[in-house]
Amino acid sequence: MSHYLSPPAMHDGRVTEAPTGRTILHVDLDAFFAAVEQRDNPELRGKPVVVGGGGPNDRGVVSTASYEARVFGIRSAMPLRTAGALCPHAIFVPVNGKKYSAASKQVMEILRRFTPQVEQLSIDEAFLDVTGTEGLFGSGEEVARRIKSAVSEEVRLTISVGVAANRLVAKIASDLKKPDGLVVVPAGTEAQFLAPLPIERLWGVGASTRRALADYNVVTIGDLAALPTDIMVRRFGTHGASISARARGIGDTIVGHDDGAKSISHEHTFDVDTDDWAVLQRSLLALSEGVGSRLRASGMKASTVAVKIRDTDFRTITRQKTLPDPTDLTDVIWKAALALTRKETRGMRVRLLGVAATGLTEETQIQMFTADQDRARRAVEATDELRKRFGSKSIRRASLLDTRVSQPFERDPRGAHKADSE
Fold first, then answer.
1. Is 236:215 a contact under the CB 8 Å cutoff?
2. How many C-beta atoms surround the C-beta of residue 299 within 10 A?
3. Are 69 and 50 in contact (CB under 8 A)?
4. pLDDT tens per residue, range 232-252
5. What is the rounded distance in angstroms from the CA atom of residue 57 to the CA atom of residue 60?
6. Which is nearest to 215 in space by CA: 200, 198, 232?
7. CA 207, 208, 209: angle at the middle one, nearest 5?
8. pLDDT digits over 15-59, tens only?
């Protein structure tokens, strides 16, 4: 069922914002990892499923929880032990990256049937620009319905879609009626659509910004839109001007082309924002291990490593480094991610970390390795084989099991940890 907003909000006889002339869709697979597991195992359907580990006593975090599990308060990035305490009868399933990647590829192929302007954001979401395709596929709403039907019939999953004139509003819309939702925001009604929503729905509004806005009695996005922009600029600088514009429904309309997957990435949102460098290093290692494993499973190598860092105020930093040689080795990816992250996180409380491998190529030529490289490759291949045969928990790094950070770390003078120099 689709949801529409009423006609545009009027002030002194004028529409608050002019239409952009574009039709943007944001599509988001519902509880993706858990939904794939429930699709493939009928015994899991209708039950609280937690994807991310073998059981509630693991030290890991929740990757995805089914909607039946979310009823108990279980959320992504929550420690597995907390999830087990909230729902003792939850069913815990280890992550199966290869299976999820295959399902994601099917969905992205469906999206590209309707427009070449598809920008894949992650394994389970993407933006589409369907401006001008009405003659072929109908309106933005009709395209959304066709996508939902195709994903349901061919991939046996549900997907939620937001349709709007810009990326910001389309993404917020796709999240409002989950699961299996369709929300259409007609051009010119963006400000009215956003007005009743809580300010935390808006990109760039983190905990400290919310506390500061409370001084002005701002609770909803509409309250924020009504606040004069000059007040926001005096209080927050250029960031204030940006979120003030977003509150009025003004957003980017450019959707980049995505000719297939250009990167493999993993992200982690911390349950509590942290400035503990030891915690950040362990998280980077876990993320790098996930990226490296997926590279090796797909037969790809990366020439560039990128990190994504989001602080407590939702400010996001991305940095990347080109490697001397393309790689699929976890340690190489991790060391590059450490170097990129260390210089950016001094004095910062981190909300989210991400590691991405980009510049992907299929490595077909014969390569010559040094003795150390050869040992490293044989070690990761043996590890991958053990995990394939005995499960993802059969072998893991000591530094991811212990609350302390193992070698190759040494104590840093500022009280955190640093990696040994290469």
1. no
2. 10
3. yes
4. 998 888 888 889 999 999 988
5. 9
6. 232
7. 90
8. 334 445 899 999 999 999 999 999 999 999 999 999 987 788 877
> Residue ranges of the alpha helices (H) in 5-93?
32-40, 67-70, 80-86
Using an 8 Å Cβ cutoff, are 46 and 30 in contact? no
The Cα–Cα gap between 252 and 333 comes to 32
**Integer Cα distance of 231 and 218 in angstroms:** 13
| Angle ∠(31,36,37) on CA atoms, nearest 5 | 105
Question: 62-115: per-residue pLDDT in tens?
Answer: 889 999 999 999 988 788 889 999 999 999 999 888 899 899 999 999 999 999
Report the alpha-carbon distance of residue 186 to residue 150 in Å, rounded: 24
The structure tokens listed for 413 are 């003078």
Cis ω for the linkage preceding 324 (within 30 of 0): no
State the Cα–Cα distance between residues 2 and 144, nearest whole angstrom.
10
Tell me how long the chain is.
422
- Residues designated catalytic: 125
The position carrying tokens 């806005």 is: 213
Question: How far apart (Å, rounded) are the C-alpha atoms in residues 94 and 388?
Answer: 12
Which pLDDT band, with edges at 50, 70 and 90, does 8 fall under? very low
Dihedral-angle region of residue 13 (phi above 0 means left; psi in -120 to 50 means alpha; beta otherwise) = left
Contact 155, 103 (CB under 8 A): yes
CB atoms within 10 A of CB 294: 20
The partner residues of 191 in beta bridges, in order of sequence, read none
- Residues 6+ positions from 11 with CB-CB distance below 8 Å: none
Residue type, 38: Q
pTM over 0.85, yes/no: no
Q: What is the 3-state secondary structure (H, E, C) of 346-394?
A: CCCCEEEEEEEEEEEEECCCCCCCCHHHHHHHHHHHHHHHHHHHHCCCC
Query: Quick check: 50 and 70 in contact, CB under 8 A?
Result: no
Give the strand pairing for 91-93 and 49-51: parallel
As a whole number of angstroms, the distance between CA 195 and CA 226 comes to 10
**pLDDT tens digit sequence for 353-388:** 999 998 887 654 434 444 455 555 555 555 555 444
**CB 18: neighbour CB atoms within 10 A?**
10
Q: Among residues 194, 180, 184, which one has the least CA distance to residue 143?
A: 184
Q: What distance, in Å, lies between the first and last C-alpha atoms of the chain? A: 57
Which two three-digit tokens encode residue 67? 């909607």
Is the CB of residue 163 less than 8 Å from the CB of residue 128? no
